[in-house]
Amino acid sequence: MSKQALIVIDIQNDYFENGALPLVNPEEASIKASKVLEYFRAKNLPIAHIQHVNPNGAPFMALGTNGVEIHENVKPLNGEKIFQKSYPNSFRGTGLLDYLKENEVTEVVITGMMTHMCVDATTRAAFDFEYKCTVIGDACASRDLEINGKTIKADDVHHAFLSALEFFYAEIKSTEEFLSANKVL
User: Which of the chain's ends, N or C, has fewer CB atoms near its CB within 10 Å?
Assistant: First the structure.
């Protein structure tokens, strides 16, 4: 029998308006992530909150700043697991893999920020650890990127990375699709 766990990646204040590294539409993504989070809470399924932490003085997510704090829309409840990381892959240097194994998880549902970095790295790693992966696309956010003097719009970055993940690593669903399939709407 399969068992799901939710991974909520880096939905932290620095990615929101007035933060050190604002994304495009983080508020909307965090609200969608909160709906998925509520589903997992209601079903009493494992939840892993991932928090990126950089050393004091770093340009974003610096220890001791408001920007490093998990956003109020997805604040962990007492007893929910929080894993702090300093790499894009949420498994690297954390106890996430052990937590999933201890809870006999076979499938992970992933929400978070940034689609092109930590969501991508974590999804690929989860797949390599033989987890069935579902990414809730509208519960993730990205930002404009630049290469060779050309700006790639956040929406294009976001969808390019989701389409690459869906090609092999994960099923991509909207919040509505996920909750409807689980009879919650």
Answer: N
Of the candidates 14, 32, 118, 173, the residue annotated as catalytic is: 118
Catalytic annotation present for 156: no
> What does the alpha-carbon distance between residue 146 and residue 152 come to, in Å, rounded to a whole number?
6
Q: Is 147 exposed, middle or buried (0-12, 13-18, 19+ CB in 10 A)?
A: exposed
Could you confirm whether 133 is annotated as catalytic? no
CA–CA separation, 152 vs 164, rounded Å?
16
Task: Provide the whole-model pTM.
Answer: 0.97
Q: State yes or no: is 128 an active-site residue.
A: no
Task: Give the model confidence (pLDDT) of 45-99 as tens digits.
Answer: 999 999 999 999 999 999 999 999 999 999 999 999 999 999 999 999 999 999 9
